[in-house]
Specification:
The chain is mainly beta. The chain has strands spanning about 1-5, 15-20, 40-45, 50-55, 60, 65, 75-80, 80-85, 95, 100-105, 105-110, 115-120, 135-140, 140-145, 150-155, 160-165, 165-170. β5 and β6 (about 65) form a beta hairpin.
Length: about 170
């Protein structure tokens, strides 16, 4: 794991994180319009690695965890940039949601798959789709330069959501 902290834009800090998926981060609180470099924290991930993953209490990696443990249901993430290693085909995403969460002013860029992948079914035979992300919120978020869709939403339990000001460009 490598971290570099230096003065950022708008008086914030910029921290580059290289390594395994990470589920924590706070921003500088600067205004964020979905593009540009106003994010207070930058997490960089290598090719082949999902960025932030929001798990339900019974999900783990691509399947299920038994017995269920603690999940990230109801997490809140603000003011960060999640950066992949480049614009090329692949099957990883900057944000993967299998549970509900609130994202405000979060941008994903340069991912091999989708920028944001929100897939969840509470009742399914497919453990990779298990979850419940109903009531997720995306406020002033963005995806750019990702190989797949900027925002990919699928499943019976992702339909009750609130998306305001999402900007998807060059995906």
């Amino acid at each position: 794991e490598q971290r570099r902290v230096a003065p950022g834009t708008g008086g914030g800090q910029v921290a580059d994180h290289v390594g395994d998926p990470l589920a924590v981060g706070t921003g500088s609180g600067d205004a964020f319009l979905g593009l540009g470099d106003a994010a207070g924290v930058v997490f960089s991930f290598p090719n082949g690695t999902d960025g932030i993953v929001i798990h339900r209490q019974n999900t783990l990696a691509g399947g299920l965890e038994a017995p269920p443990t603690n999940g990230a249901d109801g997490s809140e993430v603000r003011g960060i940039l999640i950066r992949g290693a480049g614009y090329s085909p692949g099957n990883v995403s900057g944000v993967v949601m299998r549970a509900r969460a609130v994202f405000t002013g979060v941008r994903v860029e340069k991912y091999q798959g989708h920028g944001w992948r929100i897939v969840a079914d509470a009742v399914t035979a497919d453990p990779a789709r298990t979850g419940n992300a109903n009531l997720f919120n995306l406020n002033m978020c963005a995806a750019s330069k990702c190989w797949g869709h900027g925002l990919y939403v699928d499943g019976a339990d992702v339909n009750a959501c609130n998306i305001v000001g999402f900007n998807s460009i060059n995906n």
